[in-house]
Amino acid sequence: MEEKLKKIMSQILGVPESEIMPTSSPDDIASWDSLQHMNLVLAIEQGFNVKFDAEEIIQLLSFEIIIETLKEKIG
Amino acid sequence: MHINNYTSADLQSYLDTADVSNNPVLNIAILRNITVEGLTPYLRYLAIQMGFRASISYGGFDNVLQDAIGNDDLLNHNTDCIMIFTKLETLSPKLANGFAQLDSSDVEEEKNLVKNYIVSTLQGIRSKTNAVINWQGFELPVYPAFGVIDHTNSDMQVGAINELNDFLKAKLRDVKNGFFIDINVCRSIIGYNRFYDNRYWHIGKAPYTLDALREIANDNFKVFRALKGKNKKCLILDCDNTLWGGILGEDGINGIRIGPNYPGSAYLEFQQEILSLYHRGIIIALCSKNNEPDVWDVIDNHPHMLIKRNHISIAMINWEDKASNIKQIASTLNIGLDSIVFVDDNEFEINLVKEFLPNVETIHLPKGASTDYRQMLASSGLFDSLAFTNEDKIRSQLYKAEITRKEDQGKFTGDIESYYKTLNMVACLSSANAAVTPRVAQLTQKTNQFNLTTKRYSESDIEAFINSGNADVIFVELEDRFGNMGIVGCSIISYREDFAEIDTFLLSCRVIGRGLEKVLLSRCIELAKNRNLAKVIGSYIKTSKNGQVADFYVNNGFIIESGDNDQETRFFYETKNGVPPMPSYYKEINFECFKK
Question: How far is B7 from chain A (nearest CA, A)?
Answer without folding.
Answer: 7
